[in-house]
Give the backbone structure.
Amino acid sequence: MSIFHDDVREALFEYERTEDGLLLLEVFRRAAQYGIPVPPDAYLALNGVLDRYQSGECKTLDEAFNVKRPQNWKQPATQAKRQIDRTGMSRIGRLWHRGKELQAAGIMPTDNALWEALAAEFYVSPSRAKNWFYEVEHKQKN
């Protein structure tokens, strides 16, 4: 097995653990991205989701996939940080990478200069720069 297969299986494991349909869709996205077959268990899970929707057991696809937006979710804020540029990278991803570059240059997260520099470069507040940075940092560790 390759690292790509492991990545797909990890997403499938997380879906099976949480039953969060977004993770099920992530299995399909990763498999397509890596050009590898979708695991049979993911196909069966998707088939079950669609059966629940088509049979009328669930009123909406959200309900069938078991997905909900978090309370107080704001569409504009999500769109701003997920905005993709010409490089294909999201704004939040670019901010995190730039933060890592600044850290390598000696500006540490305990220093407000890091958040102020990122804020000025990405046209956000220092607190938003810090929140976005740690959002990606947290995902990198998990």
The chain has a mean pLDDT of 87.
